[in-house]
Structures are given as structure tokens and as C-alpha cells.
TrEMBL record:
Single GO MF descriptor: DNA binding
Species the sequence originates in: Prunus yedoensis var. nudiflora
Name of the protein this chain belongs to: CBF/DREB1-like protein g
Protein location: Nucleus
PANTHER family per UniProt: DEHYDRATION-RESPONSIVE ELEMENT-BINDING PROTEIN 1D, DEHYDRATION-RESPONSIVE ELEMENT-BINDING PROTEIN 1F
Composition-biased stretches (Basic and acidic residues): 83-102
Length: 102
């Protein structure tokens, strides 16, 4: 996504396995840069998107990735929204991986 008022500056939002995930990442960056004037892919669910901590490229990238992951389909490793047991199991796995890294 091109940064406003910077002619050749862009923020890389990442690569995603689905178009919807990429579109959600784009929406986060568009809202950060243009606010209410942003042209969004999913305007009806903008309230569900994370807000970057600052206008720093890293914060925007982080919030965009978080938004995209929130819409990862089950077939691409996402968690079914209807199964709280599955969601809890995935959270435990993430925590275990973090402990192994430290």
C-alpha cells in the first residue's frame, strides 16, 4: 500500500493464502492512512478490524496481519468460529510454541 504524501514509499502488508485475508489487511492500512475517507473492501465490518498502535509502518503491518489472521479459513489452518474447544486447543499450542522458543 502506498503511503500518502510519500512519492515512492510503500508498506508491504504481506502475502496471504486467500483474497479475503489480503483484502482485510488492506482495509486496516487504508483506515490507518485515510480514516473515514478510506475505500474499503468490507466496509460493513470495519469495526472488527484492529487499529494500529501508531502510524509507523511496522505497527500498520502488525495490525494488518492480525486482521488477516482473524479471517483465516479452516482449510488454511484457521480455527472454526463455532468450536470453542478447537479454539482453546489452538491457543494452548501457540503458548507451547512460545515457551519452546524462549
Amino acid at each position: 500500500m502506498r503511503e500518502p504524501k510519500k512519492t515512492k514509499s510503500r508498506i508491504w502488508l504481506g502475502s496471504y493464502p486467500t483474497a479475503e485475508m489480503a483484502a482485510r489487511a488492506h482495509d486496516v492500512a487504508a483506515l490507518a492512512f485515510r480514516g473515514k475517507l478510506a475505500c474499503l473492501n468490507f466496509a460493513d465490518s470495519a469495526w472488527r478490524l484492529p487499529v494500529p498502535a501508531s502510524m509507523d509502518a511496522m505497527d500498520i503491518r502488525r495490525a494488518a496481519a492480525e486482521a488477516a489472521e482473524g479471517f483465516r479459513p479452516v482449510e488454511f489452518g484457521g480455527v472454526s468460529r463455532s468450536s470453542s474447544d478447537e479454539k482453546e486447543r489452538m491457543m494452548v499450542q501457540v503458548e507451547e510454541k512460545k515457551k519452546r522458543v524462549v
